[in-house]
Amino acid sequence: MRKNLLDFNYEELVEEFGKLGLEKFRVDQVWDWIYKKKVFDFEAMTNLSKENRSLLSERFYIYIPELLDMQISAIDKTTKFLWKLEDGNTIESVLLFHPDRVTACISTQVGCPAKCVFCATGQSGFVRNLSAGEIVSQIIAMESHRRVNIGNIVYMGMGEPLLNYIEVVKSVKILNHKKGKNISMRRISISTVGIPEKIIELANDLPEVKLAISLHAPTNYKRDIIVPMNKKYSVEEIIHAAKEYQKITKNRVTFEYILIREFNDFVDDAEKLAQLLKGMGAYVNLIPINPIPSSGELKLERPHHWAIERFKEVLDKHNIENEIRKEKGTDIDAACGQLRRRHKG
Ligand code: SAH
């Protein structure tokens, strides 16, 4: 059985190539073709001999997901991709264009087990974890289709990264590797619904990678309603883990807070959030909700402009660093999981 070469890290490939009688620098050459030149066919790797090329194609293939749909925002070039994987499952990735850099938002699972009520991904259920190669291939496929050089990566697409911990960590190390994409750990962020023990593991395994926690509410009462996983891992446990994480890494932690009209946008919520985060090196990302059709009782509407400002002022007053996230790609299916759902009909 041929194997997807993208699922191997550098050290594993050196070993695999060794078994074929290929020297270590052959791995460097192949990675250079893949990550720099975006060549995914061994036959086109002309600095390898014909024999070596056929040795490699007997043992490996390079799986790049098939592009099913691509939407480019006319406003800010935000590009949303829908990919088909080898087994027919579909996932999304997004490219975000900033004046000085291009950021990629990538998926870690097909669907998501967390099932947050405001998120389109969870509503379609959970199918499976992505392999490290499937995670990495989103980056090279986007670079290849849009001819850009991705400088920053956020693990913020479909799925819960810390529930696919091993493959996620492996993919980060592959993307960070000097001989590969060579993206600095500091330019990679992982966003999680908040899984305390995995947050601590991450602090030890990838201390330079940035962490974002999707908090969305300052009390268990409210968070239970929108983030079902909160019944398993409470707000207090998550904040405790975030503080431990900070002790280990010295990193600032970002907290994402989706603002939902007349649910969690009150002054009282902001005050409670400030109390929760005070004394920590916390940064709050305020995200006015991207409305999706609601399945439950709760109305998921964007807060009034003044309510968003009012929330921000309370955090400012308490010296909690924050920003209101500027929306990108508003003219395309922007919210997570929407493109995939539309294709499923
Ligand atoms: N499971 C991880 C990563 C995927 S979600 C996590 O929970 O962080 C990535 C971010 O998109 C999260 O902060 C999530 O809350 C946000 N998000 C999901 N649906 C959204 C919506 N409808 N509007 C605004 N943000 C949304």
Task: Describe what you observe in this structure.
- By secondary structure, the protein is of the alpha/beta class.
- The chain folds into two domains: 3-61, DNA polymerase, domain 1, CATH 1.10.150.530; 66-344, Aldolase class I (TIM Barrel, Alpha-Beta Barrel).
- It contains twelve helices and 14 strands.
- Helix 6 (165-176) links the parallel strand 9 and strand 10 (188-192).
- The chain starts with a strand and ends with a helix.
- It binds S-adenosyl-L-homocysteine (SAH).
The CATH topology of the largest domain: TIM Barrel
What Rg do the Cα atoms give?
21 Å
Average pLDDT confidence is 95
Name given to the CATH homologous superfamily of the largest domain:
Aldolase class I
Number of helices: 12
Helix/strand structural class: alpha/beta
Low-confidence stretches: none
How are the elements arranged and paired?
Layout (H helix, E strand, L loop, with lengths): L2 E2 L5 H10 L4 H13 L13 H10 E2 L4 E7 L6 E6 L5 E8 L4 E4 L3 E3 L8 H4 L2 E4 L2 H15 L5 E4 L9 H12 L11 E5 L3 H10 L4 E5 L5 H7 L8 H15 L3 E7 L7 H11 L4 E7 L16 H13 L3 E4 L13 H7 L1
Parallel strand pairs: 1-2, 6-9, 9-10, 10-11, 11-12, 12-13, 13-14
Antiparallel strand pairs: 3-4, 4-5, 5-6, 7-8
The structure holds S-adenosyl-L-homocysteine.
The site of S-adenosyl-L-homocysteine has 17 residues, from strand 10 and strand 12.
